[in-house]
């Protein structure tokens, strides 16, 4: 009998520890902030952007100068169709001359919210979800911002070198941009990285047994991912996403070694800026990750529009605080 009690106590203790860990990582909260506008992200416009960027043969690789120029010109034209101040940030990634494309809304000198997405792709691949989806989100955010006056400046950046061999090094486009911010007097309230936001499925196939006890087993949610230090920022963002629409939103706030640093937000942390990633969980969900099958036809543009609405609501919230 004593062994049964010991076994039961051990099981209960482990369960309590796991529940505590699950709460710590996922940071559940309640409530929502009403969507702050009438205009919404347009699924048809998002699809149009993705189809252009992921067109067959127009590979957005730093080793394909024509493909990169085609993408950068398209992004700049879309930004320029708004009232944003559009600029370029040229730099070298290895031997390649390349550039970030930037759209700035609001008055210079105001505190700033930064939202970024990389437009390069891994190899000679279409890269629809990775990461034409994030860039399309930037372009829709520019359209929504064009209709709104905010007390804070907003900067949208399309980065040109995120993928290997540049990932994790100083030649990432976001590293170049974050270093420039760190060396300036600009106050940045937060940075949001859009990293694969368009793929949804009825089953989340690759998150493993342990994560399946914490997170949904379906793949119809969007995830907000950051460090423990970003937990309060992420908690507020979740309220914005919930108020913006029906899309389920979950979060991870924990060690960066478990995947929290796998996109451009990592470089803003290094500059002392709070930041998190918005993602459909990439390779944990999308079987087309870094493959020739990552095409525009595989994405869910209506849910993608709901993601953009959540990001827009979040940046409006940040602008007001």
Give a description of the structure.
This protein is about 40% helix and about 20% strand. It has helices spanning about 1-25, 45-55, 65-80, 130-145, 175-180, 210, 230-245, 265-270, 300-320; strands at about 85-95, 95-105, 110-120, 155-160, 190-195, 220-225, 250-255, 275-280. It is built from nine helices and eight strands. Strand 3 (about 110-120), helix 4 (about 130-145) and strand 4 form a beta-alpha-beta unit. Strands 1-2-4-3-5-8-6-7 form an eight-stranded mixed beta sheet, sandwiched between helices. It has about 325 residues and is an alpha/beta fold. The model has no long low-confidence stretch (mean pLDDT about 90). Helix 2 crosses helix 4 (about 130-145). It folds into two domains: about 1-30; about 30-320, Aminopeptidase (3-Layer(aba) Sandwich), CATH 3.40.630.
Give structural attributes.
321 residues; alpha/beta; Aminopeptidase; eight-stranded mixed β-sheet; 39% helix; 18% strand; globular
Instruction: Give the uncertain stretches in residue-range form.
Output: none
CATH C-level class of the largest domain: Alpha Beta
The whole-number mean of residue pLDDT values reads 92
Q: Label the structural class.
A: alpha/beta
- Which percent bin holds the helix content? 25-40%
* CATH homolog superfamily of the largest domain: Zn peptidases
Give the N-terminus to C-terminus distance in angstroms.
59 Å
**H-E order:** HHHEEEHEHEHEHEHEH
Beta-strand content: 15-25%
The number of domains is 2
Q: From the 3D structure, determine the CATH topology of the largest domain.
A: Aminopeptidase
Provide the gyration radius in Å. Answer: 20 Å
Q: Tell me the number of helical segments per DSSP (H or I, 4 or more residues long).
A: 9
CATH architecture of the largest domain: 3-Layer(aba) Sandwich
Largest sheet: 8 strands, mixed
**DSSP summary, beta strand count:** 8
């Amino acid at each position: 009998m004593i062994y049964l009690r010991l076994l039961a106590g051990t099981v209960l203790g482990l369960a309590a520890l796991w529940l505590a860990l699950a709460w710590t990582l996922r940071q559940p909260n309640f409530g929502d902030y009403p969507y702050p506008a009438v205009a919404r992200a347009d699924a048809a416009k998002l699809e149009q952007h993705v189809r252009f960027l992921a067109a067959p043969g127009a590979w957005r690789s730093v080793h394909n100068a024509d493909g990169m120029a085609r993408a950068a010109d398209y992004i700049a034209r879309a930004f320029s169709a708004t009232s944003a101040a559009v600029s370029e940030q040229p730099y070298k990634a290895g031997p390649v001359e390349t550039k970030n494309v930037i759209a700035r809304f609001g008055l210079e000198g105001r505190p700033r919210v930064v939202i970024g997405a990389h437009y390069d792709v891994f190899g000679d691949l279409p890269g629809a979800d990775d990461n034409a989806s994030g860039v399309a989100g930037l372009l829709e955010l520019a359209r929504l911002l064009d209709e709104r006056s905010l007390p804070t400046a907003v900067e949208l950046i399309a980065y040109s070198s995120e993928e290997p061999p540049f990932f994790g090094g100083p030649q990432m486009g976001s590293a170049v941009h974050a270093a420039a911010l760190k060396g300036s007097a600009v106050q940045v309230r937060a940075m949001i990285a859009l990293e694969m936001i368009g793929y949804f499925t009825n089953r989340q196939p690759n998150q493993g047994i342990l994560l399946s006890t914490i997170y949904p087993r379906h793949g119809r949610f969007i995830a907000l991912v950051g460090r423990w230090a970003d937990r309060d920022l992420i908690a507020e963002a979740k309220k914005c996403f919930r108020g913006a629409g029906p899309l389920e939103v979950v979060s991870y706030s924990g060690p960066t070694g478990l995947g929290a640093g796998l996109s451009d937000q990592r470089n803003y942390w290094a500059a002392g800026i709070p930041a998190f990633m918005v993602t459909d969980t990439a390779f944990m969900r999308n079987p087309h990750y870094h493959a020739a099958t990552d095409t525009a036809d595989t994405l869910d543009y209506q849910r993608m529009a709901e993601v953009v609405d959540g990001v827009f609501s979040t940046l409006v919230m940040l602008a007001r605080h």
